[in-house]
Amino acid sequence: MDFRFSELDQSFRNGVGAVLDERCTPALVRSAWDAAPGGTDRSAWEALAGMGVLDALVAEDEGGLGLDERSVVLVFQEAGRAGLPDPIVETAAVAAPLLGSRFSGSGAVVASDLGTSTGPGPSLVPWAADADHLLLGGADGRLHLVAPAEVGLERVETVDGSRRACRVDWEPGPATVLDVPAVAVARARERGVLATAAQLVGLAERMLEMAVHYAGQREQFGAKIGSFQAVKHHLANAAMVQEFARPVVHRAAWSLATGAADAERDVSMAKAMASDAALVTARVALQCHGAIGYTTEYDLHLYMKRAWALARAWGDSAAHRRRVGLSLGV
Fold first, then answer.
1. Alpha helices (H) in 216-262, listed in sequence order
2. Pseudo-torsion of CA 80, 97, 152, 84, nearest 10°?
3. pLDDT tens figures, 41-58
4. Residue 114 phi/psi, 5° resolution?
């Protein structure tokens, strides 16, 4: 097993990171909280589309880059680190490989309930009012591609306002059914879980960087708070859980890309550990910042609430630990 990244993978990641540093600023993330439906700033999204990020997992003969999960996991990590307020997991990891040439080159935004579905009743779909297409799991057990204009949308207040979730009221019909094999849908769901885990790792890295920077600037009792042993321990604990989670996410990407027999187990392990790492880091970052960390005006708030939301999306830590346990027969 060798899940080290190639120079091309690293270069792709660095290029995406540079674009997001420039385009996906905290101001852009914050603007998504209050924008009117369909009025979000798509400049970062369009830049990613221009780089081929959205089509990266689409086969080359269908107009994509033909990459696999191992080659793009770092890209999702960068998207998480930037707090990208667009459905890159639902679009690039889930919908694009399923739609193939129907999607390639379109730059379309696809929202989906596959990561939030909890059973019968109206679907809860992040970004539904901003999407060009909705990828929905129907009560008939099939996957459907639906136009937002054909469904009922009701905005729902969520902990992370930049995810802009809506309750979607719709009925499946034969005209919207996607004719894709069940095995492809199952693989797309696993990619959704993996990509979300990668985003959580990126978010954790961003929050730890903010906490370390703040601890090196803020003074109390005539000293930088980062010099206090208690603060050092908190930061070290956050760094440690990230160090444990990151390679597990990369291993899961390798398992999916190579079709390993234990791929589903590895993906669940990755999501559970990445969720825990992001939540631990959010708590540590908040403690180190003190009162300012609670204010919505401070950027930490954006990343912390994204971490809370993604930790529950595509299955929370407890659900994925249960799946790991079942795979081991315990």
1. 229-258
2. 20
3. 999 999 999 999 999 999
4. -65, -25
